[in-house]
Specification:
With about 725 residues, this protein is an all-alpha fold. The strands form 3 sheets. Strands 1-2 form a two-stranded parallel sheet. Strands 3-6 form a two-stranded antiparallel sheet. α10 runs antiparallel to α11 (about 175-190) and α10 (about 160-170) runs parallel beside α12 (about 195-205). The longest helix has 22 residues, at about 555-575.
Amino acid sequence: MKKTIIFLILQIYSLSLVAQINTDRVLAIGRNALYFEDYVLSIQYFNQVIKSKPWLAEPYFYRAIAKVSLDDYKGAEEDCTLCLERNPFFVQAYYCRGIARQNQEKFEEAIADYNKGLEFKPEDRQMLVNKAIANIQRKDYEAAEKDFDRIMLLHPRYTMAYLSRGAMYLEKGDTVKALTDYNKSIKLDPYFPPAYGNRALVYYQKNDMQQALTDLNEAIRLDPRQGGYYINRGLVKYQLNDLRGAMADYDQVISMDRNNLIARFNRGLLRAQVRDNNRAIEDFDIVIRQEPDNYIAYYNRALLRAETGNYRGSIQDFDVVLKQYPNFIPGYYSRADAKKKMNDTKGAEKDYWTAFEIEQNAKKGNSSSNLASTGNATNQANSNQQNNSSKSEKSKEKEEKDTREQSDKNINKFNRLVVFDKEDERKSKYNNEIRGRVQDRNVRVDLEPQFVITYYEKIDPVKELVYYNKLIEDYNNRMVLQRKLRLTNQEAPLTEDLIGLHFASINEFSSRIEANNKDADAYFGRAMDFMLVQDFVEALEDFDQAIELNPSFTIAYFNRAVVRYKQLEYMLANQTESSDLASNEVSSMSLNLFTGKNAVSAQQNKTISPDLRDNNKKAYQHEMIAHDYDMVIKLNPDFVYAYFNRGNLRCAQRDYRAAVLDYNEAIKRDPEFAEAYFNRGLTRLYLGDIERGILDLSKAGELGIVNAYSIIKRMTSD
């Protein structure tokens, strides 16, 4: 009956069924979902609370956070306003609304929100930086400089302040001051990739390609998952005539993101230059499939099709281009050649004469009237410039090296590499700040997270690892659940459709249990559903019942431990919650490592938070989690994920030597267990065992966890 009531609360928003304690619990479940980045699901829970008690401020605020994370800035702004109407002293709501307004380019209103928030918290560096960025965005550089002066006075070692001010100077065209700030940022934090990435742009603008290349190499070593660094390095290598190196960088971007259009287009151009025509066509095929109005890609494909003898396909592409750009002279000449090779002499002559007539009109100065009707005056002007016979060979060579922004549709720039739009590039420099997601990446290194048995996993384009276990496979073969179980440590958030599906599944399992309350699999199935909708209390009750009915239910013990740890992790995050929007900045799954050759052991580290075992309640929770993993290992000694998760638990307890022993057992049973090598490496580094820690990280990198190389770089730097 209790489960049915909860289901009705979530599905039909029945006010009459929501008591005080249920409202508090639904709000807590919503915050669980928010913490674990299930934003769509969290909104449904907050909707419930708002419908029941619309006078509460908190659910509007938390719903606003979820909407910001989903890029629904208008909705987030409205929710923050509703929150502040109910509680005008809710400081975080001013911060959240400022972010929402800033992303809508309501800079004046955003600044007003930050100012209001700063009245309550005058030294809040996040609001100060966001306010400075808002002033940059509205081109009030003088006000922004004053904001940065204040930040640096209050927080002289805050790296992001120098990075943001450097971006402002670069936007103003002051490369000297920009370089000074980036140098300062790197001096304060030599392990922060964006500092190197941004400084590389300064060197690129100064035409110092070797220094730009050096900085991009460093940025990639520190953050090998950031595709933008590879794209920029590819451009630098192209300018240095390293076509193969540039192509390798675009290959890397595409391996991480198959649909990256900049990398696809640029690789297509480079493949064409080295006469790899068929594969160049494949790249342009994908660009055109995703952007059917990319006429520059059509033109390049047309040229390549002609080169490979596909004249019919080539003419079809030329037709598309010339319909859009009816005064594009090279297009007519190229189509004429293709028609001639297909023995269409009449069509070829017509194209030749059309091109000749446009050229003559251009020389006579009559082209502007013709072009006005097509809206391509700019294109023709560029075409005239391109065809100016007095242009020197040196100028032509330089033009061939030029680039175009992604939004630049000038067909005369068909053979130029694509770069990010300046506006998008500018936004990306400030995006992390104004979304309120900045973390101290210098000293906090995250462990690979715990494994869970679930139905869905988040696909990692870099770490393409497959997890298999016979225990899970055997359970799936019994077909007692409608969905296939899988192991992962990268859980995927639920979509709106999946949320509804799992609420319905809860109801189905409830009916099945009502018909047979001795069905352990039904309790397990319903516990899985409750776990996925972040209702940990109900999930634990059902796992308990499944285990009571089947004391050898190994995977029920495993997931019960996982859910208990999730509860504990969320509780710890709430206890360390600061003024940041998200409360997940400090996690018990993180290690505070001193990097470099002066690294110290755990015993010397003075930044450790109080030992969790000092708190009896937390110690008891740890003991229960450990007991479940002990049972899994007793029932199935080869289930390596239990050792791994227990190792993570030991790290949370600050019992690092015991954690190493658990990772040892996992690796002993699975010598290819990448995550176990990674976490054992971090744990050994934390214990001061630098040599063996780096060896473990090297093995983890070899097995597919590329982040390991970034940490190795940190630990071996002077």
